[in-house]
Design a protein that fits this description.
The protein is an alpha/beta fold. Helix content is 31%, strand content 20%. It has one domain: Rossmann fold (3-Layer(aba) Sandwich). This is Amidase.
Length: 175
Amino acid sequence: MKQALIVVDMQEVFFNNPENDLYEKERVLKNINRLIDQAHNQDIPVIFIQHTSQDPDDELFEGTFNWQLHKNLNRSESDQVIRKTTWDAFYRTELHNYLKENKIDQLTFAGAQTEFCLDTTIRAAYSLGYQQNRLFRYTHSTLDSSVLKAQDIIDHHESIWNNRFLTLIDGGIHL
């Protein structure tokens, strides 16, 4: 089974604005970097998904500081960066074609936000035939909402995803 690591929306907006700080952001970043390093060491493609707003007044408008992928991600020049304009990283992007061209059939997901872009992308991947996917606990995060705390959002989504849309791995982070 050929794998790829998909890192969704780990952008500066979640690290530099206190009102947008991801829940347990340092732990999540450390774990994502562990996945990235393992992927690089095993020649597993790493694909960064970058939310890109079309609105010049939006904080994720192309070229703004908040739009940049987070400076502390362990990126390499061989990594792919795919820009998206909706919650779904497959919608009107080259992601699906890239995966097909490279015969990738298993995806490991990480990133933000749990209930928005990550959830939508995980479900879309499953519907497109990527049905052996994985997610390691503590490699994704979100913000508190007006209804739920971030940890509750994370727990809820993990319980829905596990053994349906992907396999949730609780324990060591090993690709």
